[in-house]
Each structure stands twice: as C-alpha cells, then as structure tokens.
Amino acid sequence: MGEIELVPDRKLFIIHSVLFFYGDAANDLLSKQIAEDIQQHWNEASGKVVINNIAFNVEFDIEGIWSRSLSPQMVHENYGPRNNYFRLEEFASGNISFVDAINSNTGYFKLDNLLNNSTTAAHEYGHTIGLVHPEELDIRGKGTPGIMFPRGSIVDPPFQYNPQAIAGDNTNGGTMNPFTRKVTQADIDNLRLNKINFNNSRFAKLGDFSSVWHEKHLQ
After folding, report:
1. In sequence order, what DSSP letters do the residues of 148-209 get, joined into one string?
2. Which of 47, 60, 152, 155 lies 20 to 30 angstroms, CA to CA, from 70?
3. CA–CA distance from 108 to each of 20, 45, 90, 116 (Å)?
C-alpha cells in the first residue's frame, strides 16, 4: 500500500510507502535493507505514466522501520495510507513469504526469502499496490521475467535456476530463478496510474487496508 503524490511542475508521480517490521527476526538494519531493496527494484524500471499526452516519471520512496513496540491495536487502528506492517520470522508456515491480499498493507515474511538480493520483497510489495500474477506463465522467447511472475514460471534458460535443465522441469531447476525478475514498464502500466483520482492536495491512495496482525508461526 502507498500514497501517491502528484508533482505537476516536475512531471512526477511519487509513491510513498512506509514498511513497519515486527517479529523475532526484525531489526533496524534489516528493515532498512529490505526497504532499500524494494525501492531499488521498482525505481530500476525508470517508469513512466502518460496523462493528457504528457509523460510523468514514476518514483518510489520506500522507508523501512523496525517497530519494536508495535501492537495489534496499532495495526488495526491505522488509517495512514503509507503504512504497511509485516511480521518477519525465520520460520513461516508453507515456507513462503506472503501478503494478506491484493491491495493490502499487511503480511508475513520469511527471513531467508529476503536475503542475498532476492526479489521476494519487491514482488510482495507489488501485490500490496494492486498487482497480480500474470495469467500466462510460460514466457519463453520473451526475455527477462517481470517482477510479478511467481516461482514455477517457465522462462528462457538464462533465467532458470539451472540453465541446462529442460524447461518446466521443476525437479532439476527448469523453472524461473526469482533472482532474475525485474520490474518493467509493463508492471508500471498495470498499476493504471493514469486512472487515479487525486484529492485537492494532489495525493491519492494506492492499495487498501487489510489491517491484519500476525502471530508468530510455530514449527
């Protein structure tokens, strides 16, 4: 979830999001690193949106905060459109990171999904601002997979876990290595920013409030 700021004189859309992390694996440095990783991936696309034949640049401003004293009440009662809340733990049921819905502001992250330049956090952030997985998951011949392609997608050999594996052979690494995903202009287009209605202060909400507090998953 985020808040869009329209800056007409600079021809700029700025999407502001603040990510509050809680849980046993959260700390100050990691919270900042995850936010920087998401911001880098989404700004790497140098996204554009065209309004009335004028091209605006799209920039993402992502802040990560370790919220040591976060409580369920604070999550449930938040109405700040920039605020997102993610529990961060070493263990997660199902062995995956997730957000609570498309257009949401809460979720649960598994620590090792987020390390070593993974694109998981950037992918899950895409869900919070309204993006879904593409319907066509066999994109051989179409180059770099976009950020919203899920694990298991069928891609060209350079983007597989094992470039020598037969495409689609999940056992031997013949599916997409999520580290190879990139945010593309198509991802920016799918946000439909040209349809956004701004208030008189030139701000608008992107996404919605799921407001779910997550208890720690037990092994």
Report:
1. TPPTT-B--GGGBSSTTSPTT-GGGT-SB-GGG-B--HHHHHHT-GGGPPP-TTSEEEES--
2. 60
3. 12, 26, 11, 19
Q: Are 145 and 182 in contact (CB under 8 A)?
A: yes
Long-range contacts, stretch 158-165, CB < 8 angstroms, 24+ apart: none
pLDDT score for 114 = 85
Q: Averaged over 86-101, what is the pLDDT? A: 95
* pLDDT tens-digit map of 107-120: 999 999 887 778 99
**β-strand 54-66 against 98-99: which pairing, if any?**
unpaired
Q: What is the pLDDT of residues 2-29, one digit of tens each?
A: 999 999 999 999 999 999 999 999 999 9
**Placement of tokens 């609570």 in the chain:** 100
89 bridge partner residues:
110
Residues 205, 5 contacting (CB under 8 angstroms): no
Task: Count Cβ neighbours within 10 Å for each residue of 53-75 and write b for 16 or more, e otherwise.
Answer: eeebebbbbbebbbbeebeeeeb
